[in-house]
Amino acid sequence: MAIKLRSAALAVGAVVVAGALGYTALVEYGLHKSYPQSIKVADTASADQIKRGEYVARLSDCTACHTQEGGKPFAGGYTLHTPFGDILSSNITSDKETGIGGWDQEQFDRAVRHGVGSHGYLYAAMPYNAYAKLTDQDLADLWAYIRTIAPVKNKVVENQLPFPFNQRWTLAGWNLMFFHDQVFQPQELSTAEINRGAYLVDGPGHCASCHTPKNLLGGDSSAYLQGGALQGWNAPDLTSNPHTGLGKWSNEDVVSYLRSGTNRETASSGPMTEAIENSTQYMTDADLHAIASYLKSLPASTTPVPAAVASTSEPMMVGKKVFESQCSACHVSDGSGIRQMIPTLAGNSQVNAPDPASLLNVVLNGSEGPLTHANPTAAGMPAFDWKLSDSNVADVMTYIRNSWGNAATAVSEQDVAKARAATHAKPWAGHAEESQP
Q1: pLDDT at 298 over 60
Q2: Quick one: which of 231, 214, 224 has its CA closest to 245?
């Protein structure tokens, strides 16, 4: 019932916003509006410019979203699951019929930095609200590289949203409320390194797309980089909060994580592994250190630390038994794990996160370790969906989140059941045994 009410509220909110702001929005963000022209790419770009553009594409993680699993790079078709429905990424190869081979640089700029494509306004699943911060030079270099991508004929029906969210003109109202169409402006009081890090995080890296919680209409809330929900995963707090964020990480921890997918505390999983494998592992050392310096300069979020669940409670006692029999061989009895390979659970900010979605996803469905140049032999996590009941998963999660100095809310059996259904995990094998006469 709560989900239905929330969906209804979203629909009503969207219609009201569109009705109230639609006319004004269409005037201000008209499809024929002229935008400042970026640096023009010559008919034949230099090898250096194309190479720079390829690096910008890496920074922007274009491959991850514009490549369907098993498909050709940049040919589109990747499904983005949003609270409003599914959106498929577009074909950005140079095919003139199904891609963007017929575009010029101005059309490319309008889509990437201003959110206006050939079909009208783009959905913010394409993070144009972050790419708006790209410098003219980076945009021009990116276009020089995109033009070199071989054509792939792959027609994609991008908009698969239900009414009224499939009406692109309503996005004009969304833009008025949440889109800041401005190139990145360095802060005078910050160092050059921190400014570079801010540019990478807020611009091409579009970190806020996942790590900043969204409001009911899908716009960024004021809790900048304090964690968000994404397709059954929890994108963690990136502020200096020592309990749920990066407060205990050093700059080198951040660099190691982005370069290899691992550090002394944790290993990546889910969408972040895709981002590391496709994007951050290719960043220069200078850019990785710039990101680390910027993130470590952010003030800590004010998320309160809850009281730990009592070790004498039944879930904690049962959870300890499950942990000792199923988890301790890899994560070690004191939760210390194996450095650079198997995450430590003690003091792990993701373990302490208010939202246990990522932990539940990994426990139920397993996780492949990040495969990077710096970490070619990553360890994976097996799936326990078939092996553990909802009750067992809830108890062991509660135990892990409240042992070795950790403190987080208990995980319920209902939480596990919802996660099992939402992530399409396998049913517990014991159900078949229970149903037998």
Answers
A1: yes
A2: 224
**Distance separating alpha carbons of residues 153 and 156, to the nearest angstrom:** 10
Domain 192-297 sits in CATH 1.20.58: no
pLDDT 10s digits, 1-28: 333 334 434 444 444 444 444 444 444 4
User: With b meaning 16 or more CB within 10 Å and e meaning fewer, what string describes 169-196?
Assistant: ebbbbbbeebbeeebbeeeeeeeebbbb
* Domain-wise residue ranges, the chain: 31-178, 192-297, 314-432
Question: In terms of Cα–Cα distance, which of 296, 293, 288 is closest to 194?
Answer: 293
Measured between alpha carbons, how far is 285 from 375 in angstroms, rounded to an integer? 16
CB 115 within 8 A of CB 121: yes
**Rounded CA separation 123/168 (Å):** 8
Q: Which residue has the tokens 């698969």?
A: 160
**Of the ranges 116-120, 271-275, 315-319, which one carries the lowest mean pLDDT score?**
116-120
Q: State the DSSP code for 265.
A: S
Domain 314-432 = CATH 3.40.50.1000: no
Q: Count CB neighbours of 407 within 10 A.
A: 15
pLDDT above 90: percentage of residues in the chain: 68
Whether the Cβ atoms of residue 341 and residue 262 lie closer than 8 Å to each other: yes
**192-297 against 314-432: fold identical:** yes
Q: At what angle do helices 270-278 and 357-365 cross, to 10 degrees?
A: 90
pLDDT classification of 87: cutoffs 50, 70, 90: confident
Task: Using alpha carbons only, give the angle 281, 283, 288 rounded to the nearest 5 degrees.
Answer: 100
Which three-class secondary structure string do you get for 187-240? CCCCCHHHHHHHHHHHCCCCCHHHHCCECCCCCECCCCCCCEEECCEEECCCCC
| Coil, helix or strand at residue 121 | strand
